[in-house]
Design a protein that fits this description.
By secondary structure, the chain is an all-alpha fold. It has helices at about 5-20, 25-40, 45-65, 75-80, 85-95, 100-115, 130-160, 165-190, 190-210, 225-240, 245-250, 255.
């Protein structure tokens, strides 16, 4: 079927981003950002981790395109302009002999270690002294999931469609319509050229679409809009950072003392009509 390979390729990428058994890039990254703001108490390290969580998503996008963030079509310069990376950090990422998403995760791991290394455990929020082992385990598990997602992205990038995809589909296309013309001419006569023309145009459009989607991570209009995924993650990370003080204010003891303890009561409503029938009594025969 023309275009079937491209549909399969598209499905594989969506499976990596949204349907990974251990969570997708967006949800895992946002969860990491929330843990960073809720448990750590060093503003400088918190900001650095938030930055590299966002950069991680853009690095994954560059990895799927087989590029570097410093490529002319990459997002490196834009990330520097927005303050998410310094030029020195971008140069270090480019010169590092590793995939750039791994560089981001190594920086995040190093930030976690630095928070644990602050004397008197001042790198953590007050009241978390008994949770530090669990906090480290949560961070470590989340980072492991993000590492798994990098491996999935690499596998998808490496398992592209064969180079002979266009040749096979075009050969099948020509052979089919040559044989179909002979068979159809006996039944529909002079209308055969008209039917073959319109049918071949439709199939040709499908073949061209499949050709465009052989590399669905590019910049064509029919390609997967990975920029939207990265922009969504960046916007949500900014929201997490901005509401950090608001959450602290809402959960503070002063805010709790100003409210009377009460149960949340609400009127329960059924989503469908339940008839109020009287109970019937049954007698044994």
């Amino acid at each position: 079927m023309p275009g079937a390979g491209s549909i399969h390729y598209d499905f594989l990428f969506l499976n990596v981003i949204f349907l990974c058994p251990k969570g997708d890039i967006i949800s895992k990254s946002l969860d990491l950002g929330i843990m960073n703001r809720r448990w750590f108490d060093d503003a400088e390290l918190q900001n650095q981790m938030s930055r590299f969580i966002v950069v991680y998503s853009y690095a994954c996008k560059a990895l799927l395109r087989g590029q570097s963030l410093t490529h002319e079509e990459g997002d490196g310069s834009a990330l520097v302009e927005r303050g998410l990376l310094s030029q020195q950090e971008l140069d270090l990422m480019d010169s590092s002999p590793s995939w750039q998403p791994f560089f981001c995760l190594e920086v995040i791991r190093a930030i976690v270690v630095q928070c644990y290394g602050i004397p008197d455990m001042k790198g953590f929020k007050p009241g978390t002294s008994k949770l530090q082992a669990q906090i480290f385990r949560n961070f470590d598990n989340n980072i492991k999931d993000l590492v798994t997602l990098i491996g999935n992205c690499v596998r998808i990038r490496a398992s592209g469609l064969p180079a002979s995809y266009d040749a096979i589909t075009m050969t099948s296309f020509i052979a089919f319509f040559l044989l179909a013309s002979v068979v159809w001419s006996a039944a529909i006569g002079w209308m055969t050229p008209i039917v073959v023309f319109f049918a071949s145009v439709i199939i040709m459009f499908l073949i061209l679409m499949g050709t465009k989607l052989v590399d669905p991570f590019g910049l064509d209009k029919v390609d997967i809009p990975m920029e939207c995924f990265c922009a969504t993650l960046e916007a949500q990370m900014q929201a997490i950072d901005e509401r950090n003080d608001v959450i602290s204010e809402v959960t503070s003891s002063a805010a709790r003392s100003g409210l009377k303890s009460r149960r949340v009561l609400g009127k329960r409503q059924a989503t469908f009509h339940i008839p109020n029938e009287k109970k019937k009594s049954f007698k044994l025969a």
